[in-house]
Amino acid sequence: MKKHRDQSIVQITDPKIEEYARKMTTQESESIKALVTSSSEELEYIDMLSGNLVGQLLKMLVRISGAKRVLEIGTFTGYSALMIAEALPEGGEVITLEMNLLYQELAEEHFKRFDKDQKIKLLKGNAQDLVTELDGEFDLVFMDADKLSYSLYFEKVLPLLKTGGLIVVDNVLWDGFVLEPKDHKSIALDAFNKEIASDERVEQLMLPIRDGVTIIQKK
Q: Cβ neighbours of residue 117 under 8 Å, at least 6 residues apart?
């Protein structure tokens, strides 16, 4: 997710290239398209949605890894949770965490409307507290919440992740501001990126997709 920020210091991907990539990528399902329309009608901004490139990446990672149990930190209106749910096998589950009351309400409506509420469990509250209450092992974790807390979330979810499991982290390039970090979020993201790059417990790949996505695998 990302909210409006000042002008990027660099163009991460040429807009024409990104548009071409979107056209050449599997398109969103009708349910996802309807969710985007619904979100745009309810909110003044929807650029916190992960978008189809990241969404399809998540779906592919779920299928390739054979993930059955997924944790999402940061629900917003349910776009990425719904994407993940579409890729899960029968009996699969997404547990998604959200503290914003409006986003909770919208996400619940979307999960019921698109008949995915059996696969998606929404936990309401502060993710920092909710993560400590989770039981069992996860195959994949998607982090797309408070950027200042990425390092904390990572340390809390890594013990819950199976060996070989994946953590996917969104907005790691933060419109390029990590190159010259000055504000609190870009400083925190730069620090997080460096922590992951030097962490011997994992292997990682940073991709310049949209606002930057890092795929982390637990050794």
A: 108, 111
Other CB atoms within 10 Å distance of the CB of residue 159: 8
Residues 94, 120 contacting (CB under 8 angstroms): yes
User: Which domains are assigned to the chain?
Assistant: 15-218 (3.40.50.150)
pLDDT confidence of 7, banded at 50, 70, 90? low
Strand ranges across the sheet with 69-73: 120-124, 93-98, 69-73, 138-143, 161-170, 213-218, 202-207
5 pLDDT exceeds 60?
A: no
**3-state secondary structure at position 122:** strand
Here the tokens at position 159 are 């013990």
Q: Which residues, 6 or more positions from 162, have their beta carbon under 8 angstroms from its beta carbon?
A: 137, 138, 139, 218
How many C-beta atoms lie closer than 10 Å to residue 214's C-beta?
A: 21
